[in-house]
Amino acid sequence: MSTSSSEALGPQLDFLQQEPLSRARDGESLQKQLLHRIRTAVLDGRLPAGSRLPGSRTLARGLGISRNTVTLVYDVLGTEGYIELSRQGTRVAALARPEPDGHAHHAPAPPTLSQRSARIRKPLLEGVDSLAFTPGVPALAQFPLAAWRRSLDRTLQQGGTGLLGYGPPQGEPALRTAVLRHLALARGVRCAPEQVVITEGAQEALSLCVRLVTDPGDTAWIEDPGYRGAQTALASGDLDVLPLPVDAEGLCISAADWRDRPPRLVYTTPAHQYPTGSVLTASRRLDLIEKCRDHGAWIMEDDYDSEFRHSGELLACMQGMTPNAPVLYVGTFSKTLFPSLRLGFLVLPEALVDQAAPVVDEMLRGGHRCEQLALAHFMESGQYSRHLARMRRLYRSRRDALRAALAEHLDVPHTVTGGDSGMHLTVRLPADFPDQRVARAARRHRMAPWPLSRSSLLADSAHNGLVLGYGNTPESSFVPGVQQLAHLIRKSGFEGRG
């Protein structure tokens, strides 16, 4: 039946007849259109509570549509609670809704995040891996994709659809075993397979440490300047965070710190402090382990960039220095392989395994099964160690080239620190050259150095400079890049005086 011959539906439903339902082939179905119109009319008050709706046969004739369509719409609206269906008729249900305009009411409070979320500092600029001097990004173009593809193909052929379900929460046994073997050989880690937990990168491992061994309000110590991911993990745990200074021998802890604000958790990057590049000395490591034992505290050891040691042998980790050290050991494959892999690991202290295992099983959900098993094969086949050796040679060459470019072309007062490990150099600058201003200006020239001051938790931070990543930046870009940075740094000084 056409709409023109339809019967009147009453003033409250005039809106349905004033604009007929569309019958275009590529448009929404009649059922969806009618459902949306009635639902919207109820919400905006055009159909007040208690309003009686016509029966399905009457509404179908009035709109020139199938009765089945109306019946289905009424059933959905009844299920959702917009209308009440009974033998006495169909009526609009009473819904709570805001007072209409013109009535006195209090303005709603603006939406806010939790207090712990407000403590998380926002990034200065969004990171882009492809920009020159971006810290923390490996040489992605050098990754052996063909070998990785073979490991993935082998895993899929062997596992098939069995890999599509949830895996063990603590990670695939094959990968946990491969990680254990590598850490024992390369890092001196002492652990059993049940101590290894596979995580979605280092960030999840850090957050897991916080949740396992701290309570809100506990004191946590952190290096300053330091890694922002760790700052975020501690802030998210509602911890009382105490930033401690770093010198050429790593994290500096005084007797007053232990006396006045003893920690529950201490975060440190002993093998290669980020971002200064210093190494925590053996005496300080052993002292920290002993003091934490005495105070019932835990050490969160982030073994950042330890695989890329450019001079001498790889430094042993804190976790393996003494038996049963109170250390939660964290690592990631984001720097040694590629960031989007999102696989890291946590080695639990032996003393926590029995208590933590059932908690971890509830908190984590086993995923990335194909990638985990492919990585296990990649490691056991020797591809991982060969890739690390190639990257050490490449990063050593890039470090030397960047140092040379800075020495020749950075014609402002500065000091270069770090470089014994990792994929970045830190250039300290006088306060006359504001590092955040330089970093923002550099972004317009396709460069992304990190401002050192943004790695400090102190409001009046004396740290000023640029963290220059060279992992994913070719050597050919160093001289023109440093020349451009020198210009931007000088310009920032003139603007500050102006």
Walk me through this protein's architecture.
The protein is α/β, with parallel strands linked by helices and 498 residues long. The chain has helices at residues 14-18, 30-43, 56-63, 67-80, 115-118, 145-159, 173-186, 201-213, 228-236, 255-260, 282-295, 353-363, 369-380, 383-409, 435-443, 478-497; strands at 52-53, 83-86, 89-92, 196-199, 219-224, 240-247, 250-251, 265-268, 298-302, 327-332, 344-347, 415-417, 424-428, 450-451, 465-469. A hairpin with a 2-residue loop joins strand 2 (83-86) and strand 3 (89-92). The longest helix has 27 residues, at 383-409. The protein is elongated. Mean pLDDT is 90; it is low at 1-6.
Keywords:
four-stranded antiparallel beta sheet, 15 strands, 498 residues, single chain, eight-stranded mixed beta sheet, disordered N terminus, alpha/beta, 39% helix, elongated
List the helices and strands and how they pair.
Layout: H1 14-18, H2 30-43, E1 52-53, H3 56-63, H4 67-80, E2 83-86, E3 89-92, H5 115-118, H6 145-159, H7 173-186, E4 196-199, H8 201-213, E5 219-224, H9 228-236, E6 240-247, E7 250-251, H10 255-260, E8 265-268, H11 282-295, E9 298-302, E10 327-332, E11 344-347, H12 353-363, H13 369-380, H14 383-409, E12 415-417, E13 424-428, H15 435-443, E14 450-451, E15 465-469, H16 478-497
Parallel strand pairs: 5-6, 5-8, 8-9, 9-10
Antiparallel strand pairs: 1-3, 2-3, 4-11, 6-7, 10-11, 12-13, 13-15, 14-15
